[in-house]
């Protein structure tokens, strides 16, 4: 049986490997939660898209303890980790690419914000637009979608894109030098080798939750999908290199 303490240890290890790709991950978390706080409600209703084991949800509730966070992910193992570690978060197993996934959220009012971090790039541009249409349906007017991810601009501004990648590479070098944390694949190899996760890993294989590469890596793909979904304003709130926090406001 997965214990609370064991789940926290695995999530701490998850956070560390994520920092290998995002040395300024905590700074981006802070900027995202600043934006949620600036909406003005002490008790916002927030949907966490592609939540993983709940790292963002947990930080959001530390800052805004009266918030309600509904966290959605298609991966049974990550959902299992999150439920064991963060019982105050509502975790919902759902695939964002499946039409009607918002019906499983059990919302009792329109959401104030939908948030995501390092997750939506796994979704194809075609599916991304459908995801944003679903999100827009459950957001209140003036509600926001906040998406922190690597988004490149090479299709529109190739020289700027080269410099953005260089800024990110130098930040990573300063943070880790020759000793980077374990990578994403090594973390997954380790956790799926742990007998405590055998059942969740089997469920994961059945659910087809594994990722197969980045599909929406361009900023333009996200902006286009958001505008097509009816968001009235789209812009970057925070950025370092090609790592940015994109914000979209529902009309």
Describe this structure in words.
The protein has 251 residues and is an alpha/beta fold. It has one domain (4-250): Vaccinia Virus protein VP39 (Rossmann fold, 3-Layer(aba) Sandwich), CATH 3.40.50. The chain has helices at residues 4-21, 25-37, 55-63, 76-85, 125-138, 158-176, 184-192, 198-207, 219-228; strands at residues 45-49, 68-73, 90-93, 111-117, 139-150, 231-240, 243-250. The protein has a 7-stranded mixed β-sheet, with helices on both faces. A hairpin with a 2-residue loop joins strand 6 and strand 7. Helix 1 packs across helix 4 and helix 5 (125-138) crosses helix 9. The longest helix has 19 residues, at 158-176. It is globular, with a radius of gyration of 18 Å. The relative contact order is 0.18. One of its GO terms (molecular function) is methyltransferase activity.
Radius of gyration equals: 18 Å
Number of domains: 1
What would CATH call the class? Alpha Beta
Question: How many helical elements?
Answer: 9
The fraction of residues in strands falls at: 15-25%
CATH topology: Rossmann fold
Global shape:
globular
Q: Give the spatial strand order of the biggest sheet.
A: 3-2-1-4-5-7-6
- The tally of strands reads 7
- Summarize the biggest pleated sheet: 7 strands, mixed
Share of residues in helices: 40-55%
Structure classification:
alpha/beta
GO molecular function: methyltransferase activity
Keywords: Methyltransferase, Transferase
Organism: Nonomuraea pusilla
Pfam families: Methyltransf_25
């Amino acid at each position: 049986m997965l214990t609370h303490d064991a789940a926290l240890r695995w999530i701490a290890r998850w956070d560390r490997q994520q920092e290998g790709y995002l040395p300024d991950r905590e700074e981006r978390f802070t900027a995202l939660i600043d934006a949620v706080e600036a909406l003005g409600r002490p008790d916002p209703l927030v949907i966490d898209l592609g939540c993983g084991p709940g790292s963002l949800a947990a930080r959001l509730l530390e800052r805004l303890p009266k918030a309600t966070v509904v966290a959605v992910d298609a991966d049974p193992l990550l959902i299992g980790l999150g439920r064991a570690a963060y019982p105050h978060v509502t975790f919902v197993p759902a695939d964002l690419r499946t039409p009607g996934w918002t019906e499983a959220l059990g919302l009792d009012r329109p959401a104030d914000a939908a948030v995501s971090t390092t997750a939506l790039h796994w979704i194809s541009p075609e599916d991304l637009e459908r995801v944003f249409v679903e999100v827009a349906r459950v957001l209140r007017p003036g509600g926001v979608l906040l998406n922190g991810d690597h988004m490149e601009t090479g299709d529109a501004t190739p020289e700027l894109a080269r410099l953005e990648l260089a800024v990110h590479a130098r930040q990573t070098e300063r943070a880790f030098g020759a000793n980077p944390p374990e990578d994403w694949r090594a973390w997954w190899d380790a956790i799926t080798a742990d007998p405590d996760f055998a059942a969740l890993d089997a469920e994961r294989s059945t659910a087809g939750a594994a990722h197969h590469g980045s599909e929406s890596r361009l900023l333009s793909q996200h902006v286009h999908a958001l505008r097509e979904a009816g968001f009235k304003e789209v812009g970057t709130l925070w950025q370092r290199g090609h790592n940015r926090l994109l914000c979209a406001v529902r009309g």
